[in-house]
């Protein structure tokens, strides 16, 4: 397994304004590439940002990581 990578994302509303509160359930996922890895649990920072770790497990092509919301 590789070294965990810390990732923080910023949520935006439909008008493109950054959110300043938390509460959005999100799920990170690999959307492209042939490498694989695992995602740690998502932390809601209660300021419109969300943090999690990604740990690579299999080397392949670079990955794109996407987010889905569970609203």
Summarize the structure.
The chain has strands at 5-10, 26-32, 36-39, 43-44, 49-58, 64-69. The protein is mainly β.
Q: What topology emerges from the helices and strands here?
A:
Layout: E1 5-10, E2 26-32, E3 36-39, E4 43-44, E5 49-58, E6 64-69
Antiparallel strand pairs: 1-5, 2-6, 3-5, 4-5
Q: What is the global morphology?
A: elongated
> Rg to the nearest angstrom?
13 Å
Determine the strand fraction and express it as a percent band: over 45%
Sheet with the most strands, sense and barrel status:
4 strands, antiparallel
Distance between the termini: 32 Å
The low-pLDDT segments are: none
What share of the residues lie within helices?
A: under 10%
* Nearest-integer average pLDDT: 94
Secondary-structure element sequence?
Answer: EEEEEE
Number of strands: 6
Number of helices: 0
Structural class category: mainly beta
Question: What does the model show?
Answer:
A hairpin with a 4-residue loop joins strand 4 and strand 5. This protein has no helices and 6 strands. The chain has strands at residues 5-10, 26-32, 36-39, 43-44, 49-58, 64-69.
